[in-house]
Input
Amino acid sequence: MAQDDAKRNAAAAAVDFVEDGMTIGLGTGSTAAFFVEFLADEVADGLLIKGVPTSEATQRLAESHGIPLLPVEQVERIHLTVDGADEVDPHANLIKGGGAALLREKIIADASDHMIVIADAGKAVDVLGKFPLPVEVTPFGFTITAKKVYDALSATGVSKPNVKLRELGQSGAPLVTDGGNYILDCACKAIPNVRETAVALSMIPGVVEHGLFINIARTVIIGDDDGAEILEFES
Ligand code: 5RP
Output
């Protein structure tokens, strides 16, 4: 599949940033999984790194591929994090959380010396917001929080947002994140003022974290069928 080739090419290019001795944040999702697999090949060839997974799924994947992991409580420094994204804008701002791992992903990425985003070309957009923005909320009071989220989006310039609780498949039951929370998916079409929206969402009691990653990524690697383009940003 062409999209998988593009994801694989972006992931392969990120491996060049890995050095012996690094502690590496391991992202979540299909693109990040390609990176984990490439990294495992390097580890098998003698590369000495430790991984810090951003989800239970990535932990299982990394363990099954023989990547040594460090419990997050023992982490002193994360040199590099490599993760996918649902959207990337021209300033390296991101929407993340399509895989419901945004809280751990943001904690690890923000604590890293260097975050690299790997994505297929379809994820690159001029304005964030076509992909519904995931917002992680506490189960307690989530309907109240959902109204506040709607108000915050509207007040910061999103036109007619649609805020929906994410369900687990067709079950009708709410999806529960690794941290025991719910996800509100906010269809926005466009988020014209990402910083203002991020601040407004962060101020709502009940919002644990939101999927806007602003000024966190320093390198964006966009893959396509033929290879990958590497873009560097100031952080
Ligand atoms: C998980 C994420 C993923 O990085 C994002 O959903 C992209 O996934 P994929 O690489 O499968 O397209 O944010 O919470």
Observations:
- The chain is about 30% helix and 25% strand.
- The chain has a mean pLDDT of 97.
